[in-house]
Amino acid sequence: MNAPLHRLAEVAADPDAYVVAWKQSHPGRKVAGVLPMNFPEELLHAAGFLPVVIQENRDPDSDGRVILAEFYCGYTRNLADQAAKGKLDIYDTYFVADHCVQLLGAADVMRFKAPGTPIYFGQFIASMSEESTARKVRNEMEHIVGEVERGAGTPIDRERLAESIRLYNTDRRLLRMIFDARREGRIHLSGAQMQDLVKSSMVMDKAEHVALLEQLLTEGIAAGGSQARVKLHLSGHFCHAPKQELLDLIEDCGAMIVDDDLYHGRRYITTDVREDLDPIEALSTWYFDRNVNVPCPTRVQHDADWDTYLSNAVSESGADGVIVLMAKFCEPHMLLYPELRKMMDERDTPYLLIETEHEGLPMETIRTRIEALVERISRKATVAAAL
Amino acid sequence: MTTNPTTSPTTTGSTVTRMQANVEGGKMIADYWENIFTAPERGKKVVWYNGSALNPIFQAAGLEWCHGEAFSARLAAQHLEGPAQLAGAEYGYIQELCSYSRTHLGCAVLSNGGGPTPGGETGVVSALDQQELASKLPKPDFFVNAYSGCSTGQQWDEVTYRVFGKSVPIFNVSIPFLWGNKPDSRYMGGQEWDEATDYVVAQLRDLITFIEAQTGRPFDWDALSESMSYIRTASELRLEGMDLCAKKPTPATYWDWIASVAHINFLPGNQELVDYFRSVRDEVQYRVDNEVSALQNERYRLYFDGIMNWNKLGWLAKRFAEYDAAVIAGRYTHSSFWQEPQIIDPNDPLRGMAQHYLLCPINHSLPTLDYLTQRDCERFDIDGLVFHSTRTCRAFTNPQTMLASSAKEHLGIPAMFFEGDVADASFYKDDILESRLVAMLESIDVRRAKAGV
Ligand code: SF4
Ligand code: SF4
Hints:
A: alpha/beta, Rossmann fold, 2 domains, globular, B: alpha/beta, four-stranded parallel sheet, 50% helix
């Protein structure tokens, strides 16, 4: 593995260590923990915080298990566990913009366990088709600005914010270049490596991340190297990263991942903040643009269809099939899944649903199911070739 | 002393005395649904809605309204949820999904001609399932969603809209969650509360414009004032009855108040509603005056937190009574349904209505829920808390363990948890309920012994 990839993987594997080291090397600076999936990190960056999207950790849940019931998604239960164990004490403040009922449940646990740490919920209205929503989101953005400024103890300089936006856009653009190159078969990186690129971006100082991506692109990423029998699109998995063992297993079963709409994937990097608008206006617009670019079932927008997006993405990448990765108990995903299924049935795209949990994934059972999918796709290709 | 407003009280099992007014009230509910089922024949437009009690607006607009959760709850309470849930499962809804939504979406699938046997033009019910569902829920002319607190509630209607192929218009009212962001945030007060109120009021006005477009008629503001006036009076009577339950032993239980949830939440605001709640209040007053207790031998006074387990309603009432445990109040009954009537100004009702929607007990974060729970525990002199850990309703389950520890810390009262669900009986485990109830009652006994009570 080359040096930039190695460093990005290292940060992705242990975000807490990165945060602690950053604080040591930046005395007096604050770290803001951000909950997924829509908070505009640029605001925090411009105010001098290190914004970090809080990641699910690898520890088995213990203390937190008794706080949130077992029927919560892996991410929220693990957040509760981290809060209960004091693992989130590395953050000076928290920010949330997403109204997911389970996420707010976890946020309540975070406040309960660390009442001294400010946690601000600047709700971005999820129903996006009403005229009043844009005004409300814009208004909420102003409130968030006020809160960020209060936390930072200084006003956000608009020029500084514009710079942060440019920096974040650069990071997203570089990541998209890599994702596009993978989709077009010009490079080969494993699913786990692709995840490292995005996950590290959620954690690291952006300038440092951009520098590593630039170095990686300058050094070049090898093409080929995969003996895969089928090409797959990975879909879903909100808020936290699917376990890398699972991604490895998919590839081990003879599949190559060519594209995805995972939050720890294309969903996070898909949309730039417009640089031709007032920065606050641009961040509000970004919230709406994101849901058009990769529709999300946590939002309610009548003319944004995740199923249509997925169908187009599969056509574009030439994926032979789709694996839907669902964080078990994730309600928005459970609600929209039948629409995805209907679309995949209609276009005769083979698919497999895998529900994930924080612990105890039945890997051998999953292997059998993935192998069956790969076999099904291969047989379909053989039949098609014979016609 | 008041006169006995009832015929002789009915007795179930060995210790529960059910309220006669609620037997009468059951007929009002049956009539309401029958009315919905015949709406198309009568040329009435039907709105499907979820969440907040928007029904006074629909009433004033001359619509028939069908509350999705209420329909799911009714099916579950009558043990008729099976066919709808099966249709939902076949369509692809996973069992861990909110069972209210699963049941209702199953109805939508059937209504839209999906499911095991295609349904007819007007109903959710295929010929196969007609008997079981015992309903002919008409297709909606439009949807309105105004779900407080729970993101699933809003997403559910969006998905229903998609199940109907986006062919039925929909309007969303967004109710901001009251997180308590500001230093001045408190129950029904502070900047966050005021701003949220303004925002919801503006959306209600937009909703009324939308409804005018759907009905082709100007909205009848006088009719709204009138129905809100009835609802305010009904609510005051209901609260008077609830207040009387501070008496020991209690004259009525949580289960009695559950029986009138539908009335206050979605029946038409009219004189009949007021009369019904007057009869409820009078019956409770009669019991107070005549020393009639809800349980023949009340030894424990409990508070119930969680959304109702509709499949097990009668069963749970008996289970607790068997142990002389009077469940007296709860978050669902006491903090959900027009529970702050003083905020309704019948002459200018929208603001109070908006505030009521914000006051939904799943729309508050933990500090406010701590306040409400402990307030009611003190008000009714509660000995212990019962938490219904509702498998597919995270909105109600969210704060429960923390509420339990706060109540323990501040009031010294114990809690128990049992597993169940709103509308899926398979998640209920009776042996767990029983063993945990016994354990909690024992701990109450120990506490009393120590205190020399
Ligand atoms: S994974 Fe799903 S349920 Fe969990 S916090 Fe994210 S959106 Fe909510
Ligand atoms: S999860 Fe609970 S609060 Fe949310 S929509 Fe379902 S029943 Fe309503």
